[in-house]
Amino acid sequence: MAREVERKFLVSHIPASVTHRLRPQQIRQGYITKDPSGQQVRIRSKGNYYYLTVKGKGTLERDEVEIALSSEQFEDLWPLTQGRRIQKKRYEIPYQGHSIELDIFEGTLAGLIIAEIEFYSAERSLDLEVPEWFDQEVTYDLRYANSQLANSGKIPPSS
User: Fold this and answer.
1) What's the number of domains the chain is made of?
2) Annotated catalytic, 31?
3) What is the DSSP code string of 101-158?
4) Which of 59, 92, 112, 122 is deepest in the core (most CB within 10 A)?
5) Is residue 157 included in any domain, yes or no?
6) Quick one: pLDDT at residue 144?
7) What is the pLDDT of residue 154?
8) At 106, which CATH number?
């Protein structure tokens, strides 16, 4: 089983130099189930690729298993996510040997921008020099978990 280590940040302003040569990918994802402990099963379409992902509980670190789906399998499962979906455009930006996944949400979450950076270990995540255009870190704020955003369909109020 793979281990996901990820830090998340809110972004209010994206410098033009950051995305000007990049093309975003359209992402649709929906949650089939989420239990009270935080474990979840989701499906995602990213361009012409489709996945089913099972994530364990946790914030900075958690178990993750991803399985490729056909487009037909994805479409068969999609109705099971009714009321628990998000849409976003994702830019993948090289940064200090990592990749920033910059998500610009659409639909009822329009206006929300979150940057995520994945790491090989929790220790390595502490060495990050945070880009100046990142705002508040929300790694441990469950209101900004994609599954919670999909369930609520609303941008969390500022804290």
Assistant:
1) 1
2) yes
3) EEEEE-GGGTT-EEEEEEES-HHHHTT----TT---B-TT-GGGSHHHHHHH-SPPPP
4) 112
5) no
6) 96
7) 94
8) 2.40.320.10
CA dihedral 46, 138, 130, 5 (to 10 degrees): -60
16-20 long-range Cβ contacts below 8 angstroms, 24+ apart? 18/91, 18/93, 18/102, 18/133, 19/91, 19/93, 19/102
Q: Is 22 contained in some domain? A: yes
Give residue 100's domain range.
2-152
CA distance 43 to 66: 9
Query: How many CB atoms within 10 Å of residue 149?
Result: 23
Dump pLDDT digits (tens) for 70-87: 999 999 999 999 999 999
Q: Say if 159 falls within a structural domain.
A: no
Active-site position among 31, 50, 91, 144:
31
